[in-house]
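Ligand-bound model needed. nicotinamide-adenine-dinucleotide.
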Amino acid sequence: MKVQRLTILGATGSIGVSTLDVVARHPERFEVVALTGHRRLDVLAEQCRRFRPRHAVVGSSDDAGRLKAMLADIGTEVLAGPEALCRVASLPEVDAVMAAIVGAAGLPPTLAAATAGKRVLLANKEALVMAGGVFMNAVKTAGATLLPIDSEHNAVFQSLPADFSGDLARHGVRRILLTASGGPFRNTPAAELAKVTPEQACAHPNWVMGRKISVDSATMMNKGLEVIEARWLFDATPDQIDVVIHPQSVIHSLVQYVDGSVLAQLGNPDMRTPIAHALAYPERIDAGVAPLDLFQVGQLNFERPDLERFPCLALAYRALRAGGNAPAVLNAANEIAVEAFLDGRLAFQRIAVVIAATLDAVPVAPAADLAAVLAADAAAREVARVFLPQ
Ligand code: NAD
Ligand code: MG
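Prediction:
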């Protein structure tokens, strides 16, 4: 067995920590070449001590100095800044890159990994939402392997034929059904949504995740971003992707075929399952996840999403249909609005209002290259800030 050499972008986050947990269970299979983290230097230092990467990357040169001092005795090279992220994502000695930075900051290094032809384990859905066309072209041109970590897309990937070539119709697929837990406010009346706090929004019923994606789950923008992610990963039209609320989060998504068959992937809600699947693909390894106990689950329920209480999902379909830079605009406006909500500067229900107003204000234009995507991202951030309470 050839040892797989890994770069983990966003090692200190929720997905990064789960990735290292799986890696640690299989020391004979994986070698960590580089780890990156933005803040939480103590966590990154401790990870470096344990996994002994050749390189570590932090956000600022001040933090690089601090981390260097903390790691003086182990010889990990400490780098700083966005270019260093791209560098460790494309090092010749790296086989696979876990893309687990949150938000638009993850796009350049994730794209760098694809351009370098790596096996890309994609958790950073925002990269694909912003730059789907550019990203998929880079994957194809460089012959990179793209494996979805997002639990829904990993489930769809597992439920598609092993020789899936990107043509859903040819493989007899009618629809992709993405499941959604409905988040912490699934049953909260609209009138009460106005007053919910960041702490309530981040208390997800089934998953423990970073704060940004937790808020996205609460507004259901997370599912909207995932619809756009599915469009690119599986070359699906918007009409071929449906969202089903499934509060137990046991069925991670489904594929409906023309003959009436529906294939699904099930499991306990634990991100180590899709992470282990992608790390070992096409083999299977122990993820440390308890076996699913269907008797304990008891019931699997399904509901239609309520687009009135959760307008973000409809906004994502709107941006997907508009095409070009619209998904990048949607994503940028969402990042600005979520940050403002987490800072206590924006009411929960105003998140969708800020995003809709930004989509109205920024003209749709082609997104043919990374520069065009980043320009749309920057323009949308500026516009979205204008719609925040002053
Ligand atoms: P998190 O907030 O826990 O971790 C984010 C990581 O990114 C951290 O290591 C942080 O240091 C790093 N980071 C943040 N800002 C950065 C910047 N400007 N530059 C460089 N690095 C930066 O987030 P998470 O929950 O682990 O999510 C990571 C990604 O995975 C997101 O795109 C999210 O949508 C996706 N995802 C997460 C889950 C989950 O269960 N947590 C599930 C599916 C998809
Ligand atoms: Mg998901």
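The first strand starts at residue 4 and ends at 9.
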